[in-house]
Amino acid sequence: MGRFSQFPSHAEAAEALHKGDGGGIRVAVLDSGVDLSHPELRGVRLVDDLAFDGAGGDRFSGRGTDAHGHGTAMAALVLRAAPRAQVGSFRVLGADGGAGPQAVRDAAVAAVSRDYNILLCAFGSVAVAESMPLFKEWVDAAYARGVHVVCPCNNLFFRVPEWPGAFPSVVTVNMAETASGDLFFRQDPRGGHLVEFAARGVDIGVPWKDGGTAVKTGSSFAAAHAAGMLAKLLSVFPAVKPPVAKSLLQEIAEPWHDRLAVRNS
Questions:
Q1: In whole angstroms, what is the distance from residue 255 CA to residue 232 CA?
Q2: What digits encode the pLDDT tens for the residues 50-104?
Q3: Model pTM greater than 0.90?
Q4: What is the pLDDT, as a whole number, of residue 134?
């Protein structure tokens, strides 16, 4: 297998998706922080640990803590799939799980400038018109720099457009009810939506804040797994750019079956 081939064959990409380990790939987790004291993350060293308040680019140390619990779960799921990936924490969510688009924009711009390969924005926003340019700015900047963006779709109904998932350059992921660790591709016969991928996202046991654990369901957990799978692919073929990676994933992911559908599918 040609490690630095820019355009792997489908067979080579499929092999990398399963045999890659994430080595050399940086994943920025835009979320609520990462609790480094959690037993599952013992020994993990974050590339960056920053927090953003949305006040014009102000940022401060995240101090290895998680304001909510969600970010710790996201980091762990990435590392379960791609154990040698490097993770950076960019805290934008507060204790209530909410985030402003300015804070997300500031964190994403910082992650792109720090040479991350993947941005995992593990939440979505039904943005109003005034905030749309903030999302488009950083999604386009990531695309132009060859940085991959992964995010979940709406938990209640996947056809509800949310950002950044509604942008075509983003790998947007829905939850599937499966025990499989595979990534699934669904070509929507009705058209009109950009949620093409799915992964396990129902009753997932994850680490939570303050050393705890939780069993969670949602598309964000599927997106974190998908980000890890993408890291595996990129660890073997690091030169693959976002449009090529997305096209490859469409071809090599497992086909969707209706039995995988959850209530929102």
A1: 19
A2: 999 876 555 666 789 999 999 999 999 999 999 999 999 999 988 877 778 889 9
A3: yes
A4: 87
- Tell me what the pLDDT averaged over the chain comes to: 90
> What amino acid is encoded at 64 in this protein?
G
Cis, peptide link before residue 164, omega less than 30° from 0: yes
Q: Is 154 left (phi over 0), alpha (psi -120 to 50) or beta?
A: beta
Q: Are 148 and 173 in contact (CB under 8 A)?
A: no
Residue ranges of the chain with per-residue pLDDT less than 50: 1-4
The answer to whether the Cα torsion of 64, 67, 69, 75 is positive or negative is: negative
- Distance of alpha carbon 80 from the chain centroid: 13
- DSSP for 117-158, please give it: SEEEE---B---GGGHHHHHHHHHHHHHTT-EEEEE--SS-T
Helix (H) or strand (E) holding 244: helix 242-252
Give the strand pairing for 49-52 and 59-61: antiparallel
State the DSSP string of 36-79.
Answer: TTSGGGTT---S-EEEE-SSTT-EEE-TT-BSSSHHHHHHHHHH
Q: What is the number of residues in the chain? A: 265
In whole angstroms, what is the distance from residue 232 CA to residue 9 CA?
A: 16
Q: Which of 181, 185, 252 is nearest to 8 (CA)?
A: 252
pLDDT at res. 25: 98
The pLDDT of residue 176: 96
Task: Quote the CA–CA distance of 116 and 229 in Å, as a whole number.
Answer: 16
